[in-house]
Amino acid sequence: MATVTGETQQKVDAYIARLRKRLRGIDDQELREILEELRGHILDQSTVSGEKPSSAAVDRTLRSLGTPEQLAGEYLTDTLLAQAEVSRSPLRLLQILFRWASLSVAGFFVFLGSIVGYFLGAALIL
Predict the structure, then answer these.
(1) Phi, psi of 23 (to 5 degrees)
(2) pLDDT tens figures, 7-32
(3) Contact (CB, 8 A) for 58 and 41
(4) CA-to-CA distance for 112 and 101, rounded, in angstroms?
């Protein structure tokens, strides 16, 4: 990994700190892996021909990743969907889908469809 200047390191650290705040609910080991991988990705994408990453290159890389809030939403959605794959409890699935619905429009429609489906299933059983 390339060495970085103080200003560049501060930009990367600030982005990572904002992302960390948004990634509540992810276990500590997975969170560390995500943040280390992301830090490496930012520095690798910002490095040109073995030189130190420039401030402008880091800015471009961070813009291409999106805001920490957007990126955290994507990571949380992936985590929630992975949990939903292994869950067999309808109540747990609805909890996961509700959290996803709070993160995205697509999640909202999946949650709404699930509620309607469970309601229709219960009505047909009765």
Answers:
(1) -95, 35
(2) 888 888 999 999 999 888 788 898 89
(3) no
(4) 9
User: Phi/psi of residue 52, each to 5°?
Assistant: -65, 145
What is the C-alpha separation between 34 and 21, in angstroms, rounded? 13
pTM: 0.68
For residue 16, give every residue at least 6 positions away whose Cβ sits within 8 Å of its Cβ, in sequence order, or none: 35, 38, 39
Q: State the Cα–Cα distance between residues 7 and 11, nearest whole angstrom.
A: 6
Q: How far apart are the first and last CA of the chain?
A: 62
- Token pair belonging to 86: 């292994």
Residue bearing tokens 């960390």: 20
Summarised one tens digit per residue, pLDDT across range 61-78 is 889 988 998 888 888 878
